[in-house]
Prior knowledge:
CATH architecture of the largest domain: 3-Layer(aba) Sandwich
Largest sheet: 7 strands, mixed
Shape: globular
Low-confidence stretches: none
Amino acid sequence: MAISTINPATGETLKTFTALTDSEIETKLELSQQASEKWRKTPINKRAEVMIAAAAMLEQNKAQYAQLMTLEMGKPIKGAISEVEKCALVCRYYAENAAKFLADVPVATDASASFIRYQPMGAILAVMPWNFPFWQVFRFAAPALMAGNVGLLKHASNVPQCALAIEEIFTKAGFSTGVFQTLLVGADKVSDLINSDRISAATLTGSEVAGASLAAAAGKQIKKVVLELGGSDPFIVLGSADLEAAVTTAVTARMLNNGQSCIAAKRFIVVEEIAEQFQQKLVEKFAALKVGDPMQPDTDLGPLATPNILKDLDYQVSQAVKDGAKVLIGGQRLERPGNYYPATILTDIPPESPTAKEEFFGPVALLFKVANIDEAIKLANDTPFGLGASGWTNNKAQSDRLIDEIEAGAVFINSMVKSDPRMPFGGIKKSGYGRELGRAGIHEFVNIKTVWVK
């Protein structure tokens, strides 16, 4: 895939970039190693100062960065602005809390002194996706850099200007030269990068295929990897739920980022006693969504990021219908310039259809009706993914069951699944392993050193 900015709303190629040569990559790796030796010794209060400066830059220039995201990958501008604000939040969170998270932890033993010390690993390679082109990077970079590591970003090839802007933010905020660098390279260079002795570990957010490839390459080098992959998150609505709140949140949870989110609600599992009401309300709200120019503040649904994503989604829907699914609204790509697909709801999907378990990466909701909570939990877990789940009930016993029995890295009750800098984020099964954010996130890329003094 060429490294270029292609406006997904028009299909116009706006800017192209030349990938780094092997020699240029080598220079950046060497610079990263030199920066690592200095940065790890930088006092944590000094790291915090420049991280807060980065947060201030994000806040001051949020409109500019939001427009860049929308231009490159098509997210509605109001969502892009929120994304920049969240990046500032995660920078401030780790600037304020990293010292506490990384402080020595005393442990009582038969030694005169024994404790746990957290130390940086070195250069961390981040292979990041296009769907949240700023947030995905900052949620890795803020804890990693505050821990004393340095970062090398291999961003998706359709958001090169976002990648360069992020490097510029860290540079202008006062981070030492080489502490954070963007590598404009294709996916074919990832294996070579992970093989380099200058790379200590890696993190990837992306597809199952990409994650498996990186994990295999890292495994050969015995290097630590954190993977945040796909999801087919269930949104379970039980009889005691606040139906209006559930439906309203369902629309937001499915349509976030034009439906292109790993933690978007994708499978709506509703008990039969309220299924017809839920279905009717959901169709009405989907029909009211405004499709259009993502730069306009009143647009609810913009274009998908690339023509291939549009093609794949259209194929999945057609296959589901071929297998017996019923289309309640939408179901066919829009005849207009750009990568537009309408808000779509599929129901009556046969359990044996592959599409009943696949991830739909776009504005398509799969609606399932079940008899009771037992069937809801069974269906929710009947997927190779395990990222997040949303459950709706005002019955304490039911919420306790959902929390205990749903197989996922996160369960939200009466709310949509979302990431929060204060809480660990990640999945199980084929949704990946390891955690980002919270205290756990900063501990992923440190040497947890045992110290024992006689």
